[in-house]
Design goal:
It is built from 13 helices and eleven strands. It is of the alpha+beta class. The chain has two domains: 149 residues, Immunoglobulins (Immunoglobulin-like), CATH 2.60.40; 279 residues, ABC transporter involved in vitamin B12 uptake, BtuC.
C-alpha cells in the first residue's frame, strides 16, 4: 500500500493547548493525533513556542501501530530570515522550540536531509509559514505524506483524487442547490451566498468551542440558526427590495456589497487564523489499497449523500417542494394558481441558507474553519448552477458534483494552483455544446 507506506508528520497538542483559539495546525485528513505531548517548562518570558510529533503511520487506524521518527531537524526563523531556534525530534518523535522573540511572523523548516533514507519531501511541504500572537503556543503540522504522494503512480493518485473529489463534489452540490433555488424563484444572482457557507462553519465553531457542545449537536444547531438568518434576510432585506421593484442588476450589485460587508465582519470577529473544531480534528486514515480515507471524510460523504437524496425527494414529492419548482418555472402562473409566492420564497431562503451552512460545516471538518472559505468556493458554486442549468435545482445537484469532482481529479495532472481553471474549462466546453446547461431548458430569445 504505497500511499500508506510511510506516514505523516503528526503534531499533537496537550489537552489545554488543543482548546486554544489561536492554535491552528495545517491539518490533513490523513493525519492523526497519536499521543498527548507532555507539558514543557520554559523560561521564555514571552510564553511563545511551537511543538509537534513526527510519527510513521503503518496504514491502520490504530495509533498503537505508529512509530516515532527521531533525529529529524526542525528550525524556526523569523520571516526576515533571522534565526530563532532549532531542535531535533526525540526518541518519541516529539519536538519543542521556545520562541523568545514573542509575537510575530515565523517560518518553520524541516531539514529534509535528516529524514529517513529513501524519503524525499518537496521543499513546499517542508516549510510552514505561521504567525504567533502574544503568549501563544502553536501546533505545527508538516505533511510528510507529500513525500509518499511524490512517489505514488498516476493511477494511485487518480484513485485518491477520485475519493476526495467525490466528497468535495457532494459538498459543492449541497451548497449550490440553495443558490440555484434562490435564482430560480427570485432571479437574484446572490454573490453573498458564499458568506452563508462561512457563517454556518463559524456558528458551529462557536457552539463547539465556546459553548463546549459536541460537533454532532453544534452542527444541527448552527444549521437552524443560519436557516433562521436566511429567513430574516429575505423578510427584512430582499423582500422589501423586491416589493419596491428593485431591478435584478441592482440587486446583484447589492449582494456583492453585502458579501464584502459580511466577509469583513467575519475577519473582525473571528480573525484571520484558520481554526479547527475540537472534535474530529486529527484522525488516522483507513487505508484501502492505495487509498487513504479519514473516517470524518467518509462520514461527511455519507451525510452529504443522504441530505441530497432527501432534498431531491422533498422537491419532487412534497407540496412545498412542488411549489418551489412551480415558482421557479413561472412565478406569475404559480401566483394565479393560489400559491403564496412570498411565503414560498422565504422558505427557499431558509432552506438554501441551511443547506449552505451544512455544506460549510462539512467542508470545515476537513479543511478547518476560515473566515473566507465560502468566498473561496463561490466561483465553483456559480459554475455548478450554470453547468446544471440556471434555476434548475436538480441541475445544481449534478453540476455541483461534476465541478467538485473535476477540481480534485484535475490536480493529478495540473498544479494545485490551477485546479479551478480545469473546472471552468469543462464548464466552457459544456456550454459551447449545450448553452442552457445539463438540465436547463432551451428558450427562444427575441
Amino acid at each position: 500500500m504505497l500511499a500508506a507506506a510511510f506516514g505523516v508528520l503528526q503534531v499533537l497538542a496537550a489537552p489545554a493547548l488543543a482548546q486554544t483559539p489561536g492554535t491552528t495546525p495545517a491539518s490533513s485528513d490523513t493525519q492523526s493525533s497519536t499521543s498527548t505531548e507532555s507539558a514543557s517548562t520554559s523560561s521564555n518570558p514571552a510564553g511563545t513556542s511551537v511543538r509537534g510529533t513526527l510519527v510513521d503511520r503503518k496504514g491502520t487506524a490504530d495509533s498503537k501501530d505508529d512509530e516515532p521518527v527521531k533525529d529529524v531537524k526542525i528550525t524556526v526563523t523569523k520571516d526576515n530570515g533571522d534565526p530563532v531556534g532549532s531542535t531535533v525530534t526525540d526518541e518519541d518523535g516529539k519536538f519543542f522550540i521556545d520562541i523568545p522573540t514573542g509575537e510575530g511572523n515565523y517560518i518553520a523548516t524541516l531539514d529534509t536531509s535528516t529524514l529517513p533514507k529513501g524519503v524525499k519531501l518537496p521543499e513546499s511541504a517542508a516549510t510552514l509559514k505561521f504567525r504567533l500572537g502574544p503568549g501563544q503556543s502553536r501546533v505545527l503540522l508538516f505533511d510528510l505524506n507529500a513525500a509518499v504522494r511524490a512517489t505514488t503512480g498516476k493511477f494511485d493518485a487518480f484513485l485518491q483524487a477520485l475519493v476526495d473529489g467525490t466528497n468535495f463534489g457532494l459538498i459543492i452540490a449541497m451548497c449550490a442547490v440553495g443558490l440555484s433555488l434562490i435564482y430560480g424563484t427570485t432571479q437574484l444572482v446572490n454573490f453573498a451566498h458564499g458568506e452563508l457557507v462561512t457563517l454556518g462553519a463559524i456558528v458551529a465553531y462557536y457552539f463547539n468551542f465556546d459553548f463546549g457542545w459536541p460537533l454532532l449537536i453544534a452542527a444541527p444547531a448552527a444549521v437552524v440558526v443560519v436557516g433562521g438568518f436566511g429567513w430574516l434576510l429575505d423578510a427584512g432585506f430582499w423582500g422589501p427590495l423586491r416589493r419596491r421593484g428593485t431591478g435584478h442588476i441592482a440587486q446583484m450589485v447589492i449582494s456583492i456589497g453585502l458579501a464584502l460587508a459580511m466577509l469583513n465582519i467575519y475577519l473582525y470577529t473571528f480573525g484571520g487564523i484558520t481554526k479547527p473544531y475540537t472534535d474530529y480534528h486529527a484522525q488516522p486514515a483507513w487505508s484501502i489499497g492505495s487509498i487513504d480515507l479519514a473516517p470524518k471524510k467518509f462520514a461527511s460523504t455519507i451525510i452529504s449523500l443522504v441530505v441530497l437524496i432527501a432534498v431531491a425527494t422533498a422537491l419532487q414529492r412534497t407540496r412545498t417542494g412542488k411549489a418551489m419548482r412551480a415558482i421557479s418555472d413561472n412565478p406569475d402562473l404559480a401566483a394565479s394558481s393560489g400559491i403564496n409566492v412570498d411565503a414560498v420564497i422565504r422558505l427557499v431562503w431558509m432552506f438554501g441558507a441551511g443547506l449552505a451552512a451544512l455544506g460549510g460545516i462539512l467542508f470545515s471538518v476537513s479543511q478547518d474553519v476560515n473566515f473566507e472559505e465560502g468566498s473561496s468556493i463561490l466561483l465553483l458554486l456559480f459554475a455548478a448552477i450554470t453547468l446544471g442549468g440556471l434555476g434548475a435545482a436538480y441541475g445544481a445537484l449534478i453540476g455541483g458534483f461534476v465541478v467538485g469532482l473535476f477540481v480534485n481529479v484535475s490536480t493529478v495532472w495540473l498544479p494545485t494552483e490551477l485546479k479551478n481553471v480545469g473546472a471552468l474549462f469543462v464548464l466552457i466546453l459544456v456550454l459551447l455544446v449545450r448553452p442552457q446547461g445539463i438540465l436547463g431548458r432551451a428558450e427562444r430569445v427575441g
